[in-house]
């Protein structure tokens, strides 16, 4: 009798453990560059003309910031795009983000207050913009580009 109960318990445990992790909502799909929205492809060729695609992932559901496409380039940059192909997050992995991609007011603040620093990551959240500098200091700005605080 103990063997039957133990076998049943093990079988149920295996069943629950395999089905509880089976959710397609958390999986990414690898796609080709041709499957990106046109604005995303244009963005890559305009601002990163010498880079090639390493990996492109499409999420089944958008992140909180709206990103759904994760593009990894061979030059080390990772760029996230929303469903329409607008960039949401640019991570240079310690390399400077092209200055023309940083809002003018934010770039002016960084230049004035953090001499010899570059923006290495910029993230557009729904209510603020976060930038990371060469020194790994993170700054928070409102959507108009006004400085709010240093992120800790």
How would you describe this structure to a colleague?
- By secondary structure, the chain is α+β, with helices and mostly antiparallel strands.
- A nine-stranded antiparallel beta sheet has the order 1-2-3-4-5-6-7-8-9, covered by helices on one side.
- It starts with a helix and ends with a strand.
- Helices cover 26% and strands 29% of the residues.
- The chain has three helices and nine strands; from the N terminus they run H-E-H-E-E-E-E-H-E-E-E-E.
- The longest helix has 19 residues, at 2-20.
List the helices and strands and how they pair.
Elements: H1 2-20, E1 28-30, H2 38-47, E2 53-59, E3 69-73, E4 78-81, E5 87-91, H3 104-113, E6 119-124, E7 129-133, E8 138-141, E9 147-151
- The strand order across the widest sheet is 1-2-3-4-5-6-7-8-9
Q: Give the uncertain stretches in residue-range form.
A: 11-24
Span between N and C termini?
59 Å
User: Mean of residue pLDDT?
Assistant: 87
User: What is the string of SSEs from the N terminus onward?
Assistant: HEHEEEEHEEEE
The proportion of residues forming helix, as a percent range, comes to 25-40%
Using the CA coordinates, give the radius of gyration.
Answer: 21 Å
Count of separate DSSP helical elements:
3
Offer a quick outline of the entry.
The chain has three helices and nine strands; from the N terminus they run αβαββββαββββ. By secondary structure, the chain is of the alpha+beta class.
Observed structural traits:
152 residues; alpha+beta; 26% helix
